[in-house]
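User: Hi! I'm working on a homework problem where we have to compare a predicted structure to a textbook description. Could you give me the structure for the chain below?
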Amino acid sequence: MAQTIFLTGATGLLGRYLLRDLLASGHRVGVLVRDGQQRMASDRLEELLAFGSETLGRKLPKPVLLHGDLIAPRLGLGVAEWNWLARQAEAVIHSAAQVLYRPTPDGEPWETNVNGTRRLLEVCRSLGINEIHHLSTAFLCGDRSGIVYENELDCGGGSNNAYEQSKFAGEQMLREFDGIRATIYRPSVIVGDSRTGYTSTYHHFYRFLELAVRLSSRPASPPDTSKLGRQRLPLRLPLTGEETQNLVPVDWVSHAILSLLRRPQWHGRTYHLVARQPVRLREIKGIIEDLLCIEGIQWVGRDGLADPTLLEQLVLEQFQDYWSYLQSDLVFDCRNTRQALPDLPPPLFDRELVIRLLHFAQQDNWGRGRARDQVASERSCAGASNDLAHYLERVLPEQVHQSPVAHALPRGLRFAIDLNGPGGGQWTCYCGDRSIRVQRGRDLGAALTYRMDAPTFEELVHGRQTARKAFFDGRIEIEGNKEKALMLAILIEQFLGERPDRPAEMEASHAGVEC
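Assistant: Happy to help. Predicted structure tokens:
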């Protein structure tokens, strides 16, 4: 008879697959869910159940809602939830985690990944639950090279970031906790579903995919790439191309955990859930260049760039948290996984999988929720049209004329600004001698076009957002030469920073911006 499972982290990408597969396998599941900022815990659980039923094509049994919070004392559980766990729960799958590479003022990721794990273990001890299945990460080995074995914890290398530090501390605490039999799963970089491309998170690998798509201004999988000319993307990267990336689809990771859950003779060990054939960066580059019809990305070695262009500087800055993973040559031993699951190898990371991942990501707007953003736009832009028009047509030209750096404007350049949604419109800017002339409407001969919604432009005007961050976050689309457009946007930001009427908080937001 299938065990009754107490599951944490069900709202995460892997967690929702674990919940789906547990219910489909006949397990009764109690799910720890907290209220979100916009939805109650019950609504969040209903969405997870609907996801599972829809993706499997059949109705799944309803799990038990355990309203609580991992970072609250006794997990924030009420009397009814506590009593249900005491009577029913036989094992725990601890999937909850905060994937943050830098510490936050409220103590994350340590609060969730370490203190939350400690609170969970204390609750398990109080309830007499001694079987724990814990989700860790293959990268807690930190800054080292060579083979990483499943039975190793302290590998002698320092951690690359706060996330690795917190996961290391959480796993170490779990191993030392009395009365617990722990089975530890260490996945590598988890990507979307191998069959559908579905994902609900866009970290790591996806950031680079999005960058390639945005810089190329091309669809991820055009019907006939032979009809598109090659677009040159001048970008040098401080890598060799021989570095390997260990990427595993979320559905395979979930199936592997469920398979091991059903094999108690293999419990109590550590499993690297990793690709058996990691893919090299040059292979990924080749696939992306082929799909997007781009060229020009070059490997220049790990010594770095002596004279990076603006675009290269921005790329290096935006992805500095991920460079340690890109430069990694780690080899993950997976002997335990091979022995326990000889019939369940991970899918190959090939061209067809990349197409599925990219197609879903673009359809999902890289997780940004276009429909929700539109609702927010309608709320924030009502009545803003006149203010934005006044700024573009009156304030900006005047500020440029008074600026001591106006001579840096590219004389003769025409660029358009296309603001969509309520409060928006189209304008064309003509760069003259230390001046900008703005008129309504879009000149089709404009060399550059900036597209965004009105709230984003308003944030740029008031210094609450920078153009470079908005571009890399997918809030600004650029048509034309991306590097030239970003240089111009940074120059305009400097004009904004010189406004004498600019509030103090606007100045502070630009204090760290290198123009």
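For your comparison, note the following. Residues 110-127 form the longest helix (18 residues). Confidence is low (pLDDT under 50) at residues 370-383, 502-515. Good luck with the assignment!
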